[in-house]
Design brief:
Elements: H1 2-5, H2 20-37, H3 40-70
Helix pairs in contact: 2-3
Length: about 80
């Protein structure tokens, strides 16, 4: 899913925000499990997942603002 956000051949729309929810759930679960097990390796993996989620959210936000300001967001 991460690489599909950066793929220009797939048209961007409001439904792309649905990509962020499963990634956020995975990030939350990974962070909680890493804290429960208290493992530096799992903490590192959870941090990488969180970083990927942050990048995806920034890209989604920027692309949404771009479509909003260019007038393509509400065009049918």
């Amino acid at each position: 899913m991460f690489f599909k956000v950066f793929n220009k051949s797939v048209p961007f729309g409001a439904t792309w925000w649905g990509v962020s929810f499963p990634m956020a759930a995975l990030s939350n679960a990974a962070l909680k499990y890493a804290m429960f097990v208290d493992s530096w390796l799992l903490s590192t993996i959870a941090a990488v997942i969180l970083a990927l989620l942050s990048i995806v959210l920034i890209v989604l936000f920027i692309r949404t603002l771009n479509m909003l300001f260019t007038g393509k967001w509400l065009r049918g």
